[in-house]
Amino acid sequence: MYDKTFYPICGIDKGSCFFIFLSNDYINITLITILIKKRLKLYCKMFIIYNIKYLHRVYKVFIKMEVANNMKKVKIGFAPTRRSIFSAPDAIKYANLTREKLNELGVEFVDITDINEEGLLYNDSDRIKIAGKFKSEKIDGLFFPHCNFGTEYEVARLAKELNVPILLWGPRDERPDEKGIRLRDSQCGLFATGKVLRRFQVPFTYLTNCRLEDPEFERGLIDFLAVCNIVKVFRNTRILQIGPRPFDFWSTMCNEGELLEKFNIQLSPIPIPELTEAMKRVKEERAEVAEVVNYCNTNMCIKVKPEHLETIAVLKVAMKTLAKRYGCNAIAIQCWNALQSEIGIMPCASNSLLNEEGIPVVCETDIHGAITSLLVEAAAMDDTRSFFADWTVRHPDNENGELLQHCGPWPISVAQEKPTIGYPLAFNHPGAVEAQAKFGDMTLCRFDGDNGQYSLLLGNAKGIEGPYTKGTYVWVEVENLKRLEAKLVEGPYIHHCVGIHKNVVPRLYEACKYLGIKPDLYDPIEEDIKAYLRGEQIE
User: Fold this and answer.
1) DSSP assignment, residue 2?
2) What percent of the chain has pLDDT over 90?
3) Distance (Å, whole) CA 385 – CA 448
């Protein structure tokens, strides 16, 4: 059953290091689950696992390793706090236990053990030193464990100065001893800090008062790291705008000055001739272009001429080069119709290749669409690719079904079959990708605004069966299409959205408080989201 190609996976389980070797056929999580169910043997360097119980532990370790790898992209400042009237030794104890938990989960954090002997925040002189250290380390978020009560005004001063997402948490208090003595009063301290942060007008995230080993701690922390990632990406966004918007698309109009003033989102506009000049330079170098052509031939069905495939590769490399030159993390391109007369192809396949690499490229110079793509992928901790789509037509048989489709810019990993590079639905030039996207649960999202107000439309959907159509597409079902339709028409949204095969709605909802935009749920699920964020609904 096993081939001779083995892949090592290193995991840590209760302090023991082991190496698991899985064959090529069993490298993904789904198949690991199958192995668990069938009680098949796993060959290991140190031992062979026969027992279903241990196999389950391996599965959990593998999942945690994936999470830890993603979390390394986010760095948080760790500032446990205490108050003098409660036990300092107990506060130190819980601060150290929390440090151990963060290390176990693979969280990258900047500590304050070098600031004072206790490694705790509780006075103003230390707070100033801590602020300086966190600034120099460029932290993405702040974590304040309230280890016996907490000094609420020092927490608020530090949080105000650093202007990053804030996580409040305190370990659940123990039972009083036989004399009625309590060493900590953590929950009470959290109540006090929450009030003072409100006075300082500092938004914060609250992780419910729980034990370190409770599942809601780990989930809440992981979600917070994703929120930090969203905020970091949003505040450091620069979009390469290739060409103006198509004349006919007044709906994709944006206010460049307002995006900069409100959110520090920058645009780097370049004319199409600058793109074509970059293409000429890229074509002369050849090596990277050849790599892209080979990638396409390996991973896609090619139904265009070789010279057109080469142009697709050249365009991809040129756009990536320009994005790097201008320091941009996303691209919005005028994909029709001026471009076709210059280079003879649709840019869809080139967009698809860049989208697969994690550089979002959106169509029709939709700046707000590019921002949406960045937000959604940041919420997924960049481990799942998103797709940019039109809301197009209603499902012929399902009253709550809708077609999400675009000419062909979706990343390869979204497709449920091997994609084809061919021709688009409404244009005569080659270069579009054709593939139906995978079904399953999705998040659908749209950042948009007008008249000085911005919001984030978001909600859930699931992929369903539907008629074949050209381009990259998927039919989806929502809870109430008429309700969604009204929101899209009444605005401030347009016919574009971004989808991702992951439920990141709670993370995006929570991030909105730090972004200064309004979360706008197209289904009445706000109370469910709040319950999730409170640590309820733990499976």
Assistant:
1) -
2) 72
3) 21
Tokens standing for residue 194: 């929450």
DSSP E strands, 315-439: 330-333, 361-362, 386-394, 401-406, 420-422, 432-436
Q: Does domain 238-533 have CATH number 3.40.275.10?
A: yes
- Amino acid of residue 2: Y
Q: How far apart are CA 155 and CA 142, in angstroms?
A: 10
Give tens-digit pLDDT for 209-238.
999 999 999 999 999 999 999 999 999 999
The pLDDT tens digits for 468-482 are 999 999 999 999 999
Domain extent listing, the chain: 6-70, 74-213, 238-533
The CA-CA-CA angle for residues 173, 175, 181, to 5°, reads 95
Q: In this structure, what are the phi and psi dihedrals at residue 3, rounded to the nearest 5 degrees?
A: -85, -175
3-state secondary structure of 246: coil
Model pTM score: 0.86
The vertex-376 CA angle with 102 and 164, nearest 5°, equals: 50
Alpha-carbon span 420 to 412, nearest angstrom: 10
Say yes or no: domain 74-213 is CATH 3.10.20.80.
Answer: no
Distances, alpha carbon 110 to alpha carbons 38, 114, 139, 271, 325, in Å: 43, 11, 8, 43, 31
CA distance 367 to 359: 14
Neighbours of 97 (CB within 10 A): 15
Phi, psi of 32 (to 5 degrees): -60, -40
